[in-house]
Amino acid sequence: MTHTPLVLSGMQPTNTLHLGNYLGALKNWVRMQAEMPCLFCVVDMHAITAEAGYGKPDELARATREVAAAYIAGGVDPERTPIFNQGQVPEHAELAWIFNCVARLGWLDRMTQFKEKSGKHKERASVGLYTYPVLMAADILVYKATHVPVGEDQKQHLELSRDIAQKFNNDFGVPDFFPLPEPVITGHATRVMSLRDGAKKMSKTDESDNSRINLTDDAEAIAGKIKRAKTDPLPLPSSKDELKGRPEAENLLSIYAALADQTLDATIAQFAGQQFSGFKTALSELTVAKLEPITTEMRRLLADPAEIDRILKSGAQKARAIAISVMDEVKKKVGFIT
Length: 338
Ligand code: TRP
Description:
This protein starts with 6 loop residues before the first strand and ends with a helix. The protein is mostly helical. It has helices at residues 19-33, 44-47, 57-74, 91-102, 105-109, 112-118, 127-130, 132-141, 155-171, 219-228, 247-260, 264-271, 276-302, 305-334, and strands at residues 7-11, 38-42, 83-85, 147-149, 182-184. It is built from 14 helices and 5 strands. Strand 4 (147-149), helix 9 (155-171) and strand 5 (182-184) form a beta-alpha-beta unit. Helix content is 54%, strand content 6%. The chain is globular. The structure holds tryptophan. The site of tryptophan (TRP) has 13 residues, from strand 1 and helix 8.
């Protein structure tokens, strides 16, 4: 049996969004929206597994609205594609419980993100952080979604989702009940790196704000950060080969290529042999030109939080209609009387 194609993805509302979230995720979502039905979720329930989102209700609500505003300002059309926060669709948590009983401790023990996030003191991590990937599987499968655009770092979590789907189908004798969701790993600029260190991912948790371009930065801040971005002493390369061992040059050229919607080769050809200073001016002009309409729209949306809340509620109603019917089937398969 083949499942109807459906895309689901989500971003966690912790701290602020940056250029990596836009180029690595959002820009691709907008493209996918034209090709397949999609659902885009703000994963506030995942956010409370992180320190930045736990015990800070005002901050969590603010960040949730900011992510929703970024989705809309970046080009997701809430009329066509439901945009909602996970906390308003209780079926995610309901299915996650059942999946907690499907997933094995051994599977979760292998999750590298938990190991990284929990650090040296695993016993002090919350149970929620441990079972985070199980909730992610529920996010996807509560809609029977088939395609999940994610970054490289989420591939292992997606494999776990497939394992859970397969084990459920098998253990409850319902072959093909859940689809095995496919990761959609997107574009060459998926991995936007830190402006301070070309070997590290651009991240909202990096302590240096100069390492990233936030979607809330104004033109002056963007220009300043690009000016200060780390480079190397050589002129810009004239071929991809010459990029080897030059992660900062590669990152800045990749960002340019992604923003300009052109290939990395074309970008290399455009700036071959030039100095970084001139290239950086071109890069900051392009970044400002591409981000300005989005950041302006985000600020306009955020000025009216009630409108964002209305969009989230209406998105949640549409999402719930699907989730309720899948949960109804799931409960019957499990043997819960409904
Ligand atoms: N864990 C994902 C991340 O950090 C966020 C996420 C939660 C997600 N649920 C999801 C992504 C479901 C895709 C589908 O990026």
